[in-house]
Structure formats: structure tokens, C-alpha cells
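Translate sequence into C-alpha cells.
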Amino acid sequence: MATTLDLTLLYLFAAVLGVVLCRLMKLPPMLGYLAVGVVIGPNALALAKDSAGVRHLAEFGVVFLMFVIGLEFNLPKLKSMRSLVFGLGFSQVGVTMLATLAGYFALDAVLPYFDIEHGLLGWSLSWQSAVALGGALAMSSTAIVVKMMAERLELDSQHGRRVMGILLFQDLAVVPLLVLIPALGDSGGDLLKTLAIAAAKAVVVLTLLLVGGQKLMHWWLTLVARRKSEELFMLNLLLVTLGLSWLTERAGLSMALGAFLAGMLIAETEYKHQVETDIRPFHDVLLGLFFITIGMKLDWHIVVDSWALVIVLTTLPVLFKFGLITALARQLFGADTGVALRTGLYLAQAGEFGFVLLSLATDNHLLPERAQSPVLAAMVLSMLVTPFMILGSNRLVMKLSSTDWLLQSLAMTKIAAKTLNIEKHVVICGYGRSGQNLARLLAQEGIPYMALDLDPDRVQQAAAAGQNVVFGDATRPQSLVAAGLARASAVVITYPNTPSAKKILHLVHEHAPKVPVVVRTIDDSSLDELQNAGATVIVPEAIEGSLMLASQALALVGVPMRRVIRLVQTQRQARYGIMRDYFHGGDDDTVDEIELQRLQSVTLGDNAACVGHTLAQSLAAEEMRVAVVSVRRAHGAVVAPDHGLVLEPGDTLVLSGRPQNLARAESMLLKG
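Result follows.
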């Protein structure tokens, strides 16, 4: 019999394996959790049973998910997007649920001989089941869509803003659905009475917490933060989240509602960002456990037997949501045809909260166990095809909408018209703070520029102020060519996004290979990658910041400014070569940095093998794959690492290289 430790290790191993495989295939980790849940579940290898203990642990994943959603509940943000959130988002969720309910009654009227109440396709369904399924169907995948839009730089595009508005309302709609579904599943008593009691409880709890809760939360968090203990702050955060979850559960509501309220209360304090960082590990791990338990419920035997039904349940909801969202965005909210089509394509799939609502409906006997596997499989399949739908969205929209092609052509013509009479200009990709500062300096020197940006509000305001900026995607060849790439003197990528920078570098190399490109990055981790892609100059913020810090410090201690400038310029001309290496500490050993080149000091003892030999004899670069940056003698003098330098006891060598090579070199140098 498996112990709790056995099950815990199995779940952790399965989670790690699933995430690794999904990362290799560039798929969302959630799909990996679902897949390994199916494999280890009772309907496949039967390595684990859906035990009550594991289910309770996984429920905390939903609790922390709702807590994070509450943290993102920002009143100013909602106000600025109210037409998209409470207009388009509310319409999408409401019409989807009403359409599902109408579909149920239509089947009940048209196909009475199927006896829907007692056995359509062997399922026992009711109108309450249709409402629950409609809520699950209304959800879309925030994790997949937002990630892909961020990679494609579409978050600030016209369809991106509509997509984010709908996703935000879907997240908010989960809160009342978490109250509604258990009430629908209450077989005893009057439904209206049950709903009224649940609504009254929710109003009372919300009033008590929101009226004075924000001030109390701010006072309490400030009191805890003044103790200056990360451990105490973390414990307090868990206490607040789980305490409010316990309170709402005791009130007859869901634990997730309490977690959402806790997030809302903390979101209005200055500790919001610190809390987001602290809670992320708990949120990710426990939510992963939840999706594993969902995957364990999928019976692949039923899916194989009902493969035609799975295809229907995958295809019809995707087509319905695509058509509905496109129609709402186009007809009711005045979006262009191309924008409406893209919005519909991006949100046609099922979502994470759909799994939460589906599980809740099953637990409350609104959906029979036999129906769960086909529905679950259909939801997973719709999410699997989403990346391909988004990647091919532009080609599909161009085929479906001739006006979209015309509008894109007009946009390119508008960009080209602005650059028609200028040459030797600078094309600025991204008009954020860095791009605007660059534009001001160029204007002061009388150098023409053309800036491309995807934030319509920013473009509108800057253009109204007389600045040379247009709405355009720098990762698309049409935008760059229209901006006069062939006549430009330089291209500057002002935002630190390596995948996007590589796309632009490829386009510049293809259409104007002689135009130099300046690329901004956060650190030096992608220097070689960008250099190989064709970047002329790479400006890592971390290194540039250290150069400025060094120059200010040198000037303050009396080094002449001319020499300071020369020293800094020497470093830049060396392409940051020496400064790419630095001594790592324990906090530098992250997943991203642990394999980066670094510095390490090695002090030679009296019995070291290399004592009495030259540097070249002791440390052959072709064997060790490390470089010697400097040598400090035992008496304190620092000498240049000359190949003929004879090493002495007490010498300290500063080596540069990757961790494995440094470890091997240290072993060779110090062995007796």
C-alpha cells in the first residue's frame, strides 16, 4: 500500500517530467500536468489513486490561483478598460451561457425521444447542468493566449486589448460561478431560496471585508513588514490567504472566494508586488497538482469509445466561440473585421478556469462521471490547437477579410508617406521611455528618425505632440520596409526582448544588410546569440549601468575625467569582454545564470602541482578552456598574466570560464 510519501514523490516526479517535456515542445506546462495525470491515473498505469488527501492539497492550487486573480483586480485598470471588460467581456460570457442553456432546451424540444433528463448519450443532464457547462465553455486560456501575445508583441494591439478585456472579465466571472454552481447542485429545497441565501451570505461577507478590510489589511501588513523578517511576512501571507478562505467556507461559500477577497485587499496596498513574488512558488506548484488530479479523472477508454463525440465536443464549441466573439466585437463594439476575427481566433479554446468549473460541477453531481472524460478531452484538444491557430491567424484573417488586407495596406502607406522624403534616418523600434529619450537626442542633433510602436494610446499622444511615431509592428517586414529601412542609417531596438530582436535582425539582414542595428538587452546572457544574429552594437543594461557606476566612482576619487572617459571607452571597444565575467554568489545561481561564464579565485598552496612552472605550462587554454584574468602575488602585487610567468606559493589566480571548466582547472592547479 502506497504511503503519503510515496504518492508525494510520484506526483513531484510526474510534475517535473511533464513540465520538462512541455518546455522542450514549447507548450504550456499546464498541458504537461494534465498529460502526466492521465498516464499515472487509475485509468492508465494506475500508479496513483485519486486520494482524498491529494485532492484536498490540489484544491489549494485553485485557492492560490484565485488569490493571484484578486491581486490583479485593479480598479483604475478596470475603469480604463470598462467598455471592453464589462461590455465585450460581459457579453461574451453571458451570451455563451444563455446559448448553452437555449441549446439544452432546443434539444429537449426537438429530440424528446432521447429523454434528456434521464439519458442523452447515457448522460443524466438537466438545465442546471447546462448552466454549469455554459460557464465552463465561456472560459478561455489566459496562460496560453497571454504568453503567445507577449511573445508576438500584441498585448497593446487593437485585438490584444480586446482579448485582454474579455479574459479579465472571464476571471472575474469565476467568482459568482463558484457560488452559483454549488447552489445549482443542491438537490434539497427550493433553488431560488438556495441562491438567495448564497447571495445574501456573499453580500454580507463582501461588505464586512471591503468596508473596513482595506484599512485593516494595510495596518496589519505594515506592522508585520516593520519586523523586517521575510519568514514572518511569508507566514502572515499564508495565514491571511487561508484564513479568509476558511472564513468564506464556514459561511457556506467557496474557499476560492475568500482567497480572491484576500488578493483584492492586498492589491490596494504598497505590498502588492512583494506579495506576488512571494506567493508565486505556492501558486505554481499547487496549481500543477490540481491539473494532475484533473488529468487523473480522464478515462481514455471512454475517449476512445466515444472518439466521434470528442471531435464534436472539440469542434462545435471552438467554432461557436469564434463566431460569437467575432460577431460581438464587430457588430456591437465596432471593431474592424480583421480585429474582430483575430479576437475570436485567440479566444476560441477552453481555459484553466473551465477545468475548475468542470470539476466543481462533477463534485456537485451536475455532470455524470461518464461525461467528464469526453468533455475534458475536448477541452484539452482545443487548447492544444490554440498555438497553431494564433500562429496562422494572420494568413487566415487575410483570406477571410479583404478589408483587413486593405486596412493593412493603408497603414503601410501611412508609414511610407511619412518617410518618403527622408533618408539617412534612424528607425526606432519601440517608443517607450528609452525610445523617446533617443528620439529627443536625435532631434537635438537634427537627425531624422521614424519610430514604430504598438501602443495606440502612446502613438496617438506622441503624434499629436508632433513627434515622428506611427503605429506599426517592427517584427513585420512590411512595417520596416514602409519605414524606409533601405534608406536608413541605423535601426535601434529599444525594448529588451531577445526573440523579437532576433526577428528584426533577420529582417534587416534580409532587406538591408548594410544597415547597422543597435540592440538593447537586460544583461549579457544573450550577447553571443544576438551577435550571431547580426547585431552591430549590443547594449546590456546591467553592464552599461556598472560602467556608469565605475565612471562616477573614479571621478569622485580624483581620477581625471579625460582618463575616466578613456577607460570606459576602452571597455566598450572591447565589447564588454572583461566585464561579462564576474564573481558569482549564492543568489546568482539561478536557472538562467548558473551556466554563464564567471570569475573564480584560486590560491596556490606550497604543495600545488603548478608551483615552479610557468603559467602556460600549468594552465593550457585548449585543455582547460579557461582564461587567466590576473595574478596576485603573495606579497599583494598584481601582475599581468604573462605566459612565461613562473607561479609561486601563495599566488592567487583569477580565472574566467564556465563552472565545469573552472572546477576542472582548480582541481588540476591545486592537486599535489
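Note: Strands lie at 426-429, 449-453, 469-471, 490-493, 517-521, 537-540, 598-603, 627-632, 638-639, 652-657.
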